[in-house]
Amino acid sequence: LDKQEIEWIEGCKKQDAASQKALYHKFCGRMMMVCLRYSKSVQEAEDILQEGFIKVFQHIRHFRGEAQLSTWITRIMVNTALNAQRKKLYMMPMVDVDQAGLTEAETISLSDFNVKDLLKMIQSLPDGCRVIFNMYAIEGYTHKEIGEMLGVSEGTSKSQYARARTLLMQILMKEEQTYYGKFK
Amino acid sequence: MENLSKENFESQWRNAFVEAEYLPSEGVWTNIELSLQKSATGQMKKRLLFFQLLAAASIAFAMTIGGVGIYNLINESTNDINSKGTISLSTDENEATQLLQEIIANEDIATEDFLAVENSTIETKAVIEKSTVISRGLYQQIAISVLPELDEARRSESKEISDFIPTVKYVNLVNSSFSVKFLIPDKIDPVTDYALLLLADYSPDNLEKSQASSEKFWTGLSMAAGTFGTGMGTSAQDFANSPDSNNQASFTSPSSNSGSTLRMGMMLGGKISNKWVLQGGLTYMQQFTEYMSNVAGMDGAVRTNFTPLSNASLTSPYQLNSNQQFISVPLQAGYLLVDRKFGFQLNAGMATDFFIQNNLSDPSGVFANYAERGASSAYRNVNLASLAGTELSYRFGENYRLSLAPGMRYAMHSILKSETNSSFQPFTFDFAVRFNYLIK
């Protein structure tokens, strides 16, 4: 934690409005991207961001500095996003899906795409796949942890992730063909 | 082109989003700020609710005790009416001793403690200094023990009854219900006069009562905290002044319907009869209220919509804290329901509150603080408030009494000037702690 962050945290613990505002503006951009990855729209992401930051300010007295502040805030955002998604996931329970074979030899690089395009691809995934893809591939949770957090089996998490991966590969390949097609 | 295999699939996605940012709209922060303010107000409300419940419970308790007190008062009055007996002195030692033993038996006190009384000397001389009403109609006769003066060393030596040898006087009473005057020294000594007091139908409780009754005047310090209803609406429309040139309305509306208050000061009191007391004092009082306002002064300081718009301008809504300060002169009459080591009384009266100033501040620090006072203030210089409450006290030592006094205070008129076209009549529940020094 740098000195500035420590000052903000202390200020937020005293409910100092200026510290809360400074902390928000420091992290809102990165956290909005986290929320967007779990959402279908900007509006939905902003709702999660708002709720998440309120939780951050309400619980910041419990932050002990054992992790990076950004990591702690990200965890709160992810949990808030999961709560927001949980209702949808409950309505459409996740089940094991057939794992479409992934061609290991496919050669596609993400460096050909900008973040905005990648975000759109993630947002195009079905709800269950999107949540598990984010948690496993980007947040780094294991399938066991995901299963416990979402109340599904480890196998379901794996199969949903595989499906997400297949769908993303298909989108990436299609986008790449379109991109190279322009130069033919 | 990099191979997107299982090994690097996740890492490529993770890396792609590591430093990625997307700025949310400004409205998100505004909503967060409002939610946090609401949450802070809610926490304050919870704290204040505790004091409200405490005050309400105390008042309910006071009403119950009051009912019991009135019931006892009526019964006592009946005894007074019937207490028209005749008193005659007897010199019969055996009769006196027998009576004394009966009384002792009825008092459920070990007889051996009073054996010394049996061998005591009877004296017929009676010194009548104080009177009491005997409410027991069971005894046809009553004995009075007059205790010899003991030297100071012996008085402090022990509290055992057998430590002193009382002389006995007794009276033969004709009627079963009577009024009798007893020999009671001016200054009641809890040790040496115990037997006398026992026979005179003074229980140890009554002894306390006697001591409490000797409290004539007191002075002390008082501190109180509580909450008040603003009596204001929460809608900005309620406080809208005439629109300015841009057709926007100025407003200063309370963030919630309640505020908090603090008081501290000196109290003076005295007994005007056995049951009635009069007390007053001088206290410094603060009232805290939170508002949302869209008015700011031309000097960059906070203002309310009570400020003429010629001296102010409209701005974005912001939180505004108001701290009104008064010097208050309360005057209350109290009725003593219990006047012993523990005391309990009902109080009612009035307070004259002199307005000092109102400190306005913007917690976000955007606008400078502003203090309004005197003619430029929206508040009346002199205000009247009615007071009602209870006081539960405990005497410790010879000269000190600690009191807890939950009470209500209601402004008898709006404390805002009439030209503001607004009304602010605080109705306060507070809880006071008083520390009194007893002047006997």
Note down, in words, how this protein is organized.
The complex is a heterodimer of chains A (184) and B (440). By secondary structure, chain A is mostly helical. Chain A is 72% helix and 0% strand. Chain A has helices at 3-13, 17-38, 42-59, 69-91, 115-123, 127-139, 143-150, 154-181. Chain B has 440 residues and is α+β, with helices and mostly antiparallel strands. Chain B has helices at residues 6-17, 26-82, 93-106, 115-118, 152-155, 194-199, 204-213, and strands spanning 87-89, 130-133, 141-146, 167-173, 179-182, 217-229, 252-254, 258-271, 276-297, 312-339, 342-361, 370-372, 382-396, 400-411, 427-439. An eight-stranded antiparallel beta barrel of chain B has the order 6-8-9-10-11-13-14-15. A three-stranded antiparallel β-sheet of chain B has the order 1-4-3. A two-stranded antiparallel ribbon of chain B has the order 2-5. The longest helix of chain B has 57 residues, at 26-82. The model of chain B is unreliable at 76-93, 107-210 and 233-248 (pLDDT under 50). Chain A binds chain B through residues 15, 17-18, 20-21, 24-25, 28-30, 32-33, 36-37, 42, 45-46, 49-50, 53-54, 57-58, 102, 104-113, 115, 118-119, 136-138, 140, 165, 169, 172, and chain B through 1-6, 9-10, 12-14, 16-17, 19-25, 27-29, 31-33, 35-36, 39-40, 363-365.
Largest sheet of chain A: none
Count of alpha and pi helical runs of chain B:
7
The percent of residues in helical segments of chain B reads: 10-25%
Strand fraction of chain B: 35-45%
Q: What amount of the residues of chain A lies in strands?
A: under 5%
Order of helices and strands of chain A: HHHHHHHH
Query: What is the distance, rounded to the nearest whole angstrom, between the alpha carbons of the first and last residues of chain A?
Result: 52 Å
